[in-house]
Amino acid sequence: MMACTMSACHSFTSSSLPVHMMCHEQSISFQRRLSTSSLYLFRELISNDEEDLRADIAVIREQVGLDEFLKVDDRLCVIKLYAPFCKACKAFGIKFRKLASEKGDRINAAREIIRSGKARFGEIEYSSNVKLCRALGIKKFPSVLIYRGGDDGGEKLTEIECKQKTAIEDIIAEMDQLLLPTGGNC
């Protein structure tokens, strides 16, 4: 039996055609076995170690997506609004991901929440959500909106323009202030 090599499998001469067909059938059989067993293999490879987790930042599209994001629970919802062409937005995005990793939910490779945070984080990209950004009254990028989530669709608490170097500190201070217990509610 001839081994399936690149030269044998991909040189289409009349004598190599049976070899190519055999290689093709083996490849299809292997792909079918892989698709049924890969889920199980993948599950075994997923790590829930803290250093392997990443921040759960929801990508919000359209008003319906924002409404659904806010209705999940009553935690603070910190939403970054950015433009992909903005250099300040790119620099702020790195800091925002770090903040989301520290204060928000952490997920594994299967997108399962492993650690719940004090707040939930999301982002809205301007180019594909112009109407939503205008409806929210956003005039400068990057900006952060902080909502209190809930079944009623959430309540907008504050808006922070994030061009200054202290933007993350301002967001943390605002979050800490909003997380203080008031009348038994957190």
Tell me what the structure shows:
- By secondary structure, this protein is α/β, with parallel strands linked by helices.
- It has two domains: 15-43; 53-179, Glutaredoxin.
- It contains six helices and eight strands, in the order ααββαβαβββαββα.
- The chain has a five-stranded mixed β-sheet, covered by helices on one side.
- Pfam families: Thioredoxin.
SSE layout:
Layout: H1 6-10, H2 17-45, E1 54-55, E2 57-59, H3 62-71, E3 76-82, H4 87-103, E4 106-107, E5 113-115, E6 119-125, H5 130-135, E7 143-148, E8 155-161, H6 167-179
Parallel strand pairs: 2-6, 3-6
Antiparallel strand pairs: 1-4, 3-7, 4-5, 7-8
InterPro entries: Thioredoxin-like_sf, Thioredoxin_domain
Family: Belongs to the thioredoxin family.
Protein name: Thioredoxin domain-containing protein
Helix content bin: 40-55%
Mean pLDDT: 80
| DSSP helical segment count | 6
Biggest sheet overview: 5 strands, mixed
The CATH topology of the largest domain, please?
Answer: Glutaredoxin
